Amino acid sequence: MKQVRVEEAVGMVLCHDITRIVPGEFKGRAFRKGQRLQASDIPLLKDLGKEHLYVFELKEGSIHEDDAARRMALAAIGPGISLSEPCEGRINMSAVGPGLLKVNVEALFQINSIEEIVFSTLHTNQAVSRGRVIAGTRIIPLMTQESKVVEVEKICRQSWPVLSVAPFRPIEVGIVTTGHEVSSGRIEDRFGPVLEKKFADLGASIMGQDLVGDDIAKTVSAIDGFLKKGAGLIAVTGGMSVDPDDLTPAAIRTAGGEVVTYGAPTFPGAMFMLAYVRGVPVVGLPGCVMYYRASIFDLVVPRIVAGETLRREDIVAMGHGGLCSGCTDCRYPVCAFGKGV
Q1: What is the C-alpha to C-alpha distance for residues 103 and 124, in angstroms, rounded to an integer?
Q2: Does residue 333 have a cis peptide bond before it, meaning omega lies within 30 degrees of 0?
Q3: Nearest CA to 248 among 209, 287, 278?
Q4: How many Å separate Cα 138 from the centre of its chain?
Q5: Torsion of the alpha carbons at 15, 91, 117 and 35, rounded to the nearest 10
Q6: How many angstroms separate the CA atoms of 24 and 32, rounded?
Q7: Which residues lie across from 118 on neighbouring strands?
Q8: For residue range 255-288, what is the model confidence (pLDDT) as tens digits?
Q9: Residue 246: CA count within 13 A, CB half-sphere
Q10: Alpha carbon separation from 67 to 34, 147, 207 (Å, rounded)
Q11: Cis link prior to 170 (omega < 30° from 0)?
């Protein structure tokens, strides 16, 4: 710590808070401990009666918290992310637009293993909206050894990007609705409106909906029809249980589906199916998607819409964290559902 004249303090780091008082109007902090002073700060400091200040001496090989946070954030981020200005040593990272958050969890662990470094994110593989804060970073002290930030940058180069937001593709979705009770008009279809909203939230549009009853040939024909029209994803609703009238899995296989999984270690959503027909993803959605706010749909479909090709291992990994607590007031995705990995 050393004392300097106010005019000489530009670029230096303040050792103490400075209070501003305007009688009857304001009393509070005008400058904070650790703040790097700018030329534009000098007039106000003079107005506050400051002729001298105590400042930190930034030793060779050290780095200020604001500079450290900025360098770490810039090193870690990939496409789809913007940075805030530093505030009290912290920089936030936000989604530029709606998309799927991807976090390199292993690299993140390595970064946070470095003493005095903090890098915190939301869980990976979740849909995020435009402007949502997805991560924050800072160092613990006002200053640290620059070598620590260099190590963070090295990890980021080797694992880049540590975090990114993959934009949702504007795909068209075909819906194939099974169940004789729906196709006959005996009950009203409730699946279609739910899916229309869910897909709209992901930036996808519904190109059509076919009601096929409990008929394998009609289901196969509907899938084929949507493929010929250029569907980027096909959702087959209902008919996923072991009931003898539930024929969706057989129909998807008959349509040429290369099955990734029939069954998922998640509740709700265990009777889920994912297959690819001529390279296009086809999902068999159990009835729970219709009445649970969060289900297997919300764990898998955003990743598909963002362009990922899922493997069986991706579904298997959902078992850790795949149990929904069924909270009365559902706060998904701000909860543990699907966040085991």
Answers
A1: 5
A2: yes
A3: 287
A4: 20
A5: -10
A6: 22
A7: 138
A8: 999 999 999 999 999 999 999 999 999 999 999 9
A9: 15
A10: 12, 13, 49
A11: no
